[in-house]
């Protein structure tokens, strides 16, 4: 591998003080269809001969490389509904185990230059110092001492030993993936219980996962690093972006994200560093608001309209009256009510004002 210097080290991105290691653990990239030859050439050189396979994520065809690397694309007629004009690359944790940190940096830079868009990135921190204890994580979860994700759950497993079966805490999951999630989640678990690579309790993994729009924003931070050292620092600083453990008890500041961090988490963050929290404006927020209006509000307005016709009640006039004094943009609600009356819903930017109209 020509882009790897001599003596680059192990397959972790950075071995940090106190035996805390950080590395990429999963990566999904999407590129334009005309980059297929370059993508195939890159992985042919580094992972050897590929085997034909089915495509992933709705793509028609694909190839498998060693260590779970997969490339998918479409070969059907471009006019077909099944055609996806893109190439999708998946690199799982097994692939990162055989790549040095420098190789991961070069991979990110290479695909960044090809215009890749990241749709998933997992960054893992393995703590072998005892800073992170699952009992502390569970206590924080039950007390609500965390910021970022809105949902959390403990993960248990049944383990058998000489005295019989025992319910064992294996980890905690914060947040969720998919459209119901916020683009981030964090899993904290016992790596020994999960993989058997270490004795139970010896290594606790903190794994931050970024999806879709958030992943697309995070990836350029890694691509645009100018040195390998900067790349490792940036990667490590992403871990606390998905989760933050802070005191939930009332304090002088009503904003939980400004309250003191839990001591064990503060210690880990001081090692990892932290980037400024990555804010994402979701382009579908307005669409989701309008979908909620159509599902929950429109039936009520329709009932009012039908009932009002028999008693002379004008629902549109009523809504307009309720909107007096509200910013002018909110008057778009009137158009939606009128559209509902004639059976034509107008999808406009009015979601956040609708609750005021029907209070």
Structure description:
This protein is of the alpha+beta class and 359 residues long. Helix content is 35%, strand content 23%. The chain has 12 helices and 11 strands. The chain has helices at 36-47, 93-97, 101-113, 134-143, 191-195, 212-223, 228-237, 263-272, 285-311, 315-322, 332-341, 354-357; strands at 14-16, 20-32, 51-54, 61-64, 70-73, 86-91, 117-127, 152-161, 164-174, 184-190, 204-211. Strands 1, 2, 3, 4, 5, 6, 7, 8, 9, 10 and 11 form an 11-stranded antiparallel beta sheet that branches. Strand 8 and strand 9 form a beta hairpin. Helix 3 packs across helix 6 (212-223) and helix 10 (315-322) runs antiparallel to helix 11 (332-341). Mean pLDDT is 78; it is low at 1-18, 327-331 and 336-359.
List keywords for this structure.
12 helices, single chain, disordered N terminus, 359 residues, alpha+beta, disordered C terminus, 35% helix
SSE order and pairing:
Blueprint: E1 14-16, E2 20-32, H1 36-47, E3 51-54, E4 61-64, E5 70-73, E6 86-91, H2 93-97, H3 101-113, E7 117-127, H4 134-143, E8 152-161, E9 164-174, E10 184-190, H5 191-195, E11 204-211, H6 212-223, H7 228-237, H8 263-272, H9 285-311, H10 315-322, H11 332-341, H12 354-357
Antiparallel strand pairs: 1-2, 2-6, 2-7, 3-4, 4-5, 5-6, 7-11, 8-9, 9-10, 10-11
